[in-house]
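Entry 14. Ran structure prediction on the chain below.
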Amino acid sequence: MSVQEVETEVKITPTDPLILSPTITNKKQPRGIHQFSGVFYALFSSFLFTFSTFTIRQLGVDLLDALLIRFSIQLLLTLSFALHKKYTLLSGTGLQVFLQIICALTGAGGFVLFSLALR
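Output, structure tokens:
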């Protein structure tokens, strides 16, 4: 038996995932803003919603006008993020895409009708 064969036989890998040492890779780990980008987008979305509510209360702007501006800004930011990350906007079978479109249209239509009812 050579020394090399003995070394390969002695290697024991732990089965508990908590004691595994992290592997070193050449892949760049996300840092800072890239790691927490989802949190930043959620906070910015909340800021836009709060700002539109503040605008309605303080300036006396119409509810539908303020929220349409907010939704336009949020739509542009969401689309730019999705295109930058190369996400597919609609995926699945033809029936699933059709149902996604119907769901989006009924949600948007319900919001517009609700806003018009508040006028």
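The chain has two domains: 33-87, 89-119. Will compare against last week's run tomorrow.
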